Fold:
Amino acid sequence: MSEADDRELDALQAVLAAEHAAVYGYGVVGGRIGEGRRGEARAAYDAHRSRRDALTRDVRDLGGRPVAASAGYALPFSVPDSVAAVRLAAELEERLAGVYSDLVRAADGERRAAAAGALREAAVRAARWRGGSVAFPGLAERGGASSGRSSGSGSSGPEGSGSEGSGSEGSDAGASGSASVGPTG
Structure:
């Protein structure tokens, strides 16, 4: 496998891991979101499940072994109500935009186009959840900028410990650049 193929496979694995985390996160969102936005949360959940399944196939097509989902993920903040659920949905989408931007950089051809489409969809969903947009989705997360997020939700790296709803804030940008809620344990 060439160095370019290795970079692409690594980026695919990172996106797959982020999609696993998003599916988990949207399970939490769906349990707390108000009735008025429940359909939107369900549509996002279904979209992320579909992307996760397609990414699993892509990793196998490149000869890799798809990264497995963790049993649980530490959330970047407590999600006690609908307001926090909306904030979590926006955070999930912002983090996904970051890892999809890495895949756009690493891939070419159809896979690059698909990654750019996924980045766009994540940015649009984030803007809808947040009520506003950022100039360059997927890039603000890399520079540690708050990109208009509420205080306490600015972590873009994985949490190494904690549990769902623990109230612990994310604090480490992470060396891997992974932009997903972190696995517990």
